[in-house]
């Protein structure tokens, strides 16, 4: 039934002849501009979440980096714990992942959308955003490697604090970049410039 | 917008301003809650329902009623753009661009 209706609608298309081609072009332009305005509205929502996103990501990745620092300590059982210290590492890893899932769930709940693991489509199609994600991916390896090396070399508390801070700052900065690119992609105008349409209007008038 | 690889096909169902905006929002977000969609478009419950029903009749969207938070008695409606809806919307946007370009 629905498919039949759909076919009927698309078949009606050739009959959709406007009174005036210029008017139809203006209507189409207006429709495209409305879509741009709606996306700009979505961008405002993402911009509002920027700070909280950065803080959450910094906490999650700071905790993850600290977990990497703990791995050598657990491996060599340097703190002489009565139980297997690998459980501490496993627990921290689980907490970090749960926190990450919580961030995504809370954000989508605030926005009233289904949880998304990926950015909105216009952002995914933006080259600048893709570049930000690619850079984040590679930079992401720095804190764990640093944390493992430092954790292997020393047990000092300040070294743990330092690597945690490095992990938080690097990932927070990358998240800030990604958020900016998402907002930029959503704010990008996709409707053609109306001035081009105006100039063609003048030609059609053929005055003078 | 993502109409690069789509055949331009003008779609009367999607062309209605509110329905076009609904499809535009869903194309960006994927799945949205009914109340958020209604508030973003600044329209009434009835208007929003009417347009969603039309889109659902053409299999462009899928309406999913789920229990409210914490298993409360009321239901929350989630609106999802189907694959057909996505294609139809992108083809329609491509058609609009073609019209604006004067082709």
TrEMBL record, chain A:
Source species, domain of life: Bacteria
TM regions (residue ranges): 54-71, 86-108, 129-150, 156-174
Keywords carried by this UniProt record: Membrane, Transmembrane, Transmembrane helix
Keyword Transmembrane helix: yes
Name the UniProt record assigns to this protein: Uncharacterized protein
Species in which this protein is naturally found: Bifidobacterium colobi
UniProtKB/TrEMBL annotation, chain B:
Pfam families named among the record's database cross-references: HTH_34
Matching Gene3D superfamilies: Winged helix-like DNA-binding domain superfamily/Winged helix DNA-binding domain
Superkingdom classification of source: Bacteria
Domain Winged helix DNA-binding: 18-100
Protein name from the UniProt record: Transcriptional regulator
Lineage, highest ranks first: Bacteria, Bacillati, Actinomycetota, Actinomycetes, Bifidobacteriales
């Amino acid at each position: 039934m629905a498919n039949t209706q759909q076919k009927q609608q698309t078949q009606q298309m050739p009959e959709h002849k406007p009174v005036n081609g210029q008017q139809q072009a203006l209507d189409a332009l207006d429709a495209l501009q409305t879509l741009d305005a709606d996306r700009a509205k979505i961008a405002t929502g993402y911009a509002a979440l920027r700070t909280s996103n950065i803080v959450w990501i910094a906490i999650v990745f700071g905790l993850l980096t600290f977990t990497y620092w703990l791995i050598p300590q657990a491996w060599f059982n340097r703190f002489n714990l009565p139980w297997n210290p690998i459980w501490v590492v496993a627990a921290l890893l689980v907490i970090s992942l749960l926190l990450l899932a919580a961030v995504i769930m809370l954000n989508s709940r605030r926005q009233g959308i289904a949880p998304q693991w990926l950015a909105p489509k216009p952002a995914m199609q933006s080259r600048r955003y893709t570049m930000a994600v690619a850079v984040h991916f590679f930079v992401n390896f720095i804190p764990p490697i640093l944390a493992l090396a430092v954790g292997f070399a020393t047990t000092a508390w300040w070294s743990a604090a330092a690597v945690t801070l490095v992990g938080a700052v690097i990932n927070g900065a990358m998240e800030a970049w990604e958020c900016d690119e998402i907002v930029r992609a959503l704010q990008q105008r996709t409707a053609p410039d109306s001035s081009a349409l105006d100039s063609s209007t003048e030609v059609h008038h053929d005055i003078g | 917008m993502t109409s690069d690889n789509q055949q331009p096909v003008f779609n009367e169902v999607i062309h209605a301003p509110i329905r076009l905006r609904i499809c535009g929002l869903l194309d960006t977000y994927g799945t949205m809650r009914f109340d958020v969609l209604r508030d973003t478009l600044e329209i009434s419950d009835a208007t929003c329902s009417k347009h969603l029903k039309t889109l659902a009749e053409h299999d462009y969207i899928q309406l999913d009623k789920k229990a409210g938070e914490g298993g409360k008695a009321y239901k929350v409606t989630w609106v999802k753009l189907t694959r057909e809806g996505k294609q139809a919307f992108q083809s329609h946007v491509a058609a609009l661009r073609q019209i604006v370009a004067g082709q």
